[in-house]
Write a structure and sequence with these properties.
Blueprint (H helix, E strand, L loop, with lengths): L1 H9 L1 H25 L9 H11 L7 H16 L12 H12 L1 H4 L19 H6 L6 H6 L11 H13 L6 H16 L4 H6 L3 H8 L10 H21 L6 H19 L12
Helix pairs in contact: 1-2, 2-3, 2-4, 3-4, 3-5, 4-5, 5-14, 9-12, 10-12, 10-13, 13-14
Length: about 280
């Protein structure tokens, strides 16, 4: 649904950019497997998912060769060099996006601005979070339907919610991490005097909560670990949004918490029945 919305909001360029990231991710994984003499793993579709998520983190105006470079970082550097699927230390698409943001800050912040439903001038000259930092009121309907500037996957909140609920209903992801993450952001927003609904619908929060923070490899497998993980995501995101120099903090929050996942798993795992006696 989010890909279809991106095509409607930003035009065919959004679909072309997505096709490039998906094709590049699959091609890099295939070539790496051939180079290493490993079995071809493209058929598990994980590279396609990574390419799609990477596209959702990019503005539609980004040059196509930069998008392909981001796919190389995501697949080869973050995923394959660490042993392939299930062994990466962080979400590949998140790292690919951050490398592009540091390497090409101009193109990565050159957003397209579709016409807003409310006619709000604030959303035609800045992303919603940037406008909020300047004290602008963010129209909920524009945020919900995605008629504002930004990257492909952070505009239409409605389709992100539909996609996230679909994953939960199908049992593909558990609701613990998204629920705790979103609830933490809402509570901190209230305490900080910000509009919690606008904060939930803005930026990459819904994309990160449902589709990236729930990555099997880089999220805790225990319920207690997931609760702490979601809480940490919300605290870091709000800290960067409200008191940092950046308008958005979702990517950094996910990367930081990804690095803590092994410790969360270790500290919160359940002891097998009949163990846990006196220390030797």
């Amino acid at each position: 649904p989010t890909l279809a919305a991106a095509g409607l909001i930003f035009g065919p360029r959004a679909l072309l950019l997505t096709a490039v990231t998906v094709a590049s991710a699959a091609a890099f994984e295939y070539l790496w497997c051939r180079l290493r003499g490993w079995p071809n793993s493209v058929h598990d579709w994980s590279a396609v998912v990574t390419g799609l998520l990477l596209a959702f983190n990019l503005p539609p105006t980004l040059p196509l060769w930069m998008a392909a470079a981001g796919a190389f970082v995501s697949i080869v550097i973050v995923k394959e060099l660490f042993g392939g699927i299930g062994r990466n230390f962080a979400n590949p698409a998140i790292v690919g996006r951050m490398v592009l943001a540091v390497s090409f800050p101009g193109p990565m912040t050159r957003y397209a601005f579709p016409a807003t439903l409310s006619g709000a001038d604030a959303l035609t000259s800045a992303t919603p979070l940037a406008a909020a930092q300047n004290g602008a009121q963010l129209p909920w309907m524009d945020l919900l339907l995605g008629t504002h500037g930004g990257v492909l996957g952070e505009t239409c909140a409605l389709t992100l919610l539909l996609g996230g609920l679909f994953l939960i209903v199908r049992g593909i992801i558990r609701p613990t991490i998204p629920a705790v993450y979103l609830a933490t952001v809402a509570v901190i927003s209230l305490l900080a005097g910000r509009d919690p609904v606008a904060q939930l619908l803005s930026g990459g929060l819904l994309l990160g909560a449902f589709f990236m923070a729930t990555d099997y490899t880089t999220s805790p497998y225990t319920t207690k670990g997931q609760l702490i993980y979601g809480l940490g995501l919300g605290i870091i995101t709000c800290g960067i949004r409200f008191w940092g120099n950046l308008a958005e903090g979702v990517s950094y929050a996910i990367l930081i918490m990804n690095l803590l996942v092994p410790y969360l798993n270790q500290l919160t795992r359940t002891r097998p029945l009949g163990t846990g006696g006196g220390r030797k």
